[in-house]
Please model this.
Amino acid sequence: MFTKISKPTIRLSAFRLSVGLSLLLSLTVSPAKASDSFIETSSCDRNEALTYKRAQKTNRLKLGLALGGGGARGAAEVGVLKVLDEAGVKFDYICGTSIGAVVGGFYALGASPALMQKEFENGNVMEHFMTVPLWFRVAISPVLKVVNIFREKDYDGLYAGNRFRTYLMGKLTAHDQLIENLPIPFAAVALNVMDGKPYMIRKGNMGWAMQASSAVPTLRKPVELGDYLFCDGGLICNLPVKQCREMGADVVIAINIDEPFTPLPKGQLTGFGSMAKRMIAWDLQDLDGPQSKFADLTIHPDTTGISLISTKRKDAKRGVKAGEEAARDALPAIKQLLSECNIPLGLPPVRPK
Model:
């Protein structure tokens, strides 16, 4: 996905990875095992959101970015970042969950929004997230179960996620693959299925952290890192505003890519799967509501109709456009917020195209 060049400027190559190098990375890069790599956190409750008061400091406050989960809707986050990048908004901390961890991790590394937009719109991101069509994977799952009888027992899930990880890592050097070496402090949020608690992954290999944070149960196998077994953090901290504050941010801008939960006529709830889809939307709204209120400002692009697992390029383009529109609408409020917090707008970051 990226390549390493001379310091101190990080220059990134094309997002597309070399298959041979990817296979090599999958063999040579191991998960993080240090216990201080994983910091226990908790979901934000409504009382925390209601009682939140911005820190009063005379010096410059630190700005954090919280990127929510949402699968293919992550294209909308890229659209938001395009506009904020052009406006010169710079972040001191970045925290992401699921696809938000993928977008946020590479933005923290120095990837340009234009580069990430290209990868979403040409289908690379979601095609590597689900390496074969879902219907095909479900159809052959009985065969795979028979084959697995003769193998060591593996964790439950239709996809392993290893190809997604190696795609994300691309040609990054061992130095740039480590979270603790990123130019901007970064955390990926994942749920440890062993104790049922969410954790911020703050150290170790970015690829493993992203794979763990986006390991949707049943769809993807959980990821074993040291003594932890991680799955998608969106189950408990889908919009990680509280976690961004725990990292050290005084002010947090959140990007919520949930499909808006609006009233529906009864006639739209008669099709197969329509109730399940509706309940997922409700659950995300209920889960992300307190976190959104805990933010100083939340940008919520209109992702209506974009499926979490959509591989359609037109959905990616629509997501990017929705993110751009939402960010432009929010720019006056963002500038006012930053002015109140003594956070200057810098010149647009010079990022490789």
About this structure: The CA atoms of residues 301 and 325 lie 8 Å apart.
